[in-house]
Amino acid sequence: MPLCFLSVRPPPPPLITCHVSPSAVRAPPSASAPAAPSRSLSPNANPPPSLTCALHCPHFESCSGCTHEFNLHRPVIIDEATEFFKAVGVSDFTFDSCKLWGWRCRAKLAVRGSSENPLIGLYQEGTHNVVDIPQCKAHHPSINAAVELLKQGITELSIEPYDEDEGTGDLRYVQMAVTTHDTSLPASERYKNGKVQVALVWNSRNENSPNSEKLNALANFIWRNGGTRSKVNLVHSVWANFQTSTNNIIFGNRWRHLLGERDFWEHVGGIDISLAPSSFGQANTRAFDTLLRKLQRYVPQGSSVADLYAGAGVIGLSLAVTRKCRSVKCIEINKESKLSFEKTVDRLPNLVDSSISWHLADTSKVDVLVVDPPRKGLDASLVDALRSISSAEYKAKSSSESSSSKEKDEKRPWMLRAREASLVHIGSKITSEDSKTLPRTLIYISCGWESFKEDCELLLSSKAWKLEKAHGYNFFPGTQSIEVLAVFKRGQGVSLKKKKLGKKKKKRL
Ligand SMILES: C[S@@+](CC[C@H](N)C(=O)[O-])C[C@H]1O[C@@H](n2cnc3c(N)ncnc32)[C@H](O)[C@@H]1O
Known about the structure:
Blueprint: H1 77-87, E1 94-96, E2 106-113, E3 118-123, E4 130-132, H2 141-156, E5 171-179, H3 187-190, E6 195-202, H4 212-226, E7 235-242, E8 254-260, E9 265-268, E10 271-274, H5 285-297, E11 304-308, H6 314-322, E12 327-331, H7 337-347, E13 355-359, E14 368-371, H8 380-387, H9 402-409, H10 413-421, H11 432-435, E15 441-446, H12 449-461, E16 465-473, E17 483-490
Parallel strand pairs: 1-16, 6-7, 11-12, 11-14, 12-13, 14-15
Antiparallel strand pairs: 2-3, 2-5, 3-4, 5-6, 7-8, 9-10, 15-17, 16-17
Helix pairs in contact: 2-4
Binding site for S-adenosyl-L-methionine: 282, 309, 332, 372
GO biological process, one term: methylation
GO molecular function, one term: RNA methyltransferase activity
């Protein structure tokens, strides 16, 4: 019974992403939230203590990026999370908050409006109207500065922003990613002097299309006025992505490096990591670093680790170095991430003696499994596989599980191909011998609270896993989202209330 994980390419990420972080917070309940202040609050005035953790963003009313204006250090969901974890046997859930403003080091922004009046920002809730957010408080200040520069270029060069109704215009989106890893600066200066990798999503098939002259002119403008030789020295590099599809997918498959440094490095979890613009990167670099430092403590030295939903392999490679892992296997569906993974591996310290690999299959012989799925949570087939690891009796499983019979019925060739390409065998037939090589620890990193709860309940109700520890991180201040780090051990799960159990995980494709 090959239990496989994952099959089709996931839907594009929402335009907005978020994350949280450090210093354990035990704040009073949100009932004590202050009354809304007047919008005319001067940013220079010394705010009363109750407002010190307020957003103070001029775009809050119209922008969908943030949903909460006050108590940014303590998202409202914390109370629910604390109760949830208590109910499943973890009474020492902790929550770390982090930088409350200027935390977002990665943003995908829509470009609309006109060349005279470009709008660069996020969709208004429930619409396709773009809200211009030049003074966004979540963005790293370098992102706001690069957006300003981009607007100047659009206007001076008469670049037409994309028109969704007509499918016309040149510039559709921009992705801005900040590296805070300039080692020529003292450590204390690096974050605020972050440099931006600008990726322009251009409405053409490739760099030979008729409007490519404009693309080059815009890239040159950005580089001349923002690159290393400019006064502001703000831009790390300029990239193009080509996308002509009329669907909502932000990026096309074709990427081109145009100007500046090709390689983009960040330093998190104790290692230098390379991140191409096509690869997933965490938005809140600092909070992610805090989470990784905690995660490392749960991985015994010398372990074998499988990092599922690995992106460019940041988690697995950080463990290879800091926990001297015997082996690290990274599994990821986006082929584009592999190059970044390889560059990171090349830069790992020489003394690292792990067997490190990029995998689309075979995670059966591991001690620790790390999963970091997108917001929709674990793929149903992976949940099935994890549930079927029974610690109570290491007995062989039949090959007639419901998921695999569903798999047998699959006829669509592209699904079969994608499944083949992304197969991860957790265990075929689980024999008592095999069970010794099945993972003993499952570390679940989640940015989707609702899907996490569902997955967690399914894992615990299978009795294959018990939850040992849970930590929350303020990855996305201003929103309801938190990042969760949960540590499961193979063994008897706690019994959950009946009504919560037995729910079949819906396919969240
Ligand atoms: C939340 S990101 C985490 C990436 C990485 N762990 C990190 O922290 O940078 C989720 C990753 O899962 C990948 N992904 C989504 N569905 C997948 C699947 N079915 N199989 C493998 N990878 C998948 C995405 O491409 C993305 O890189």
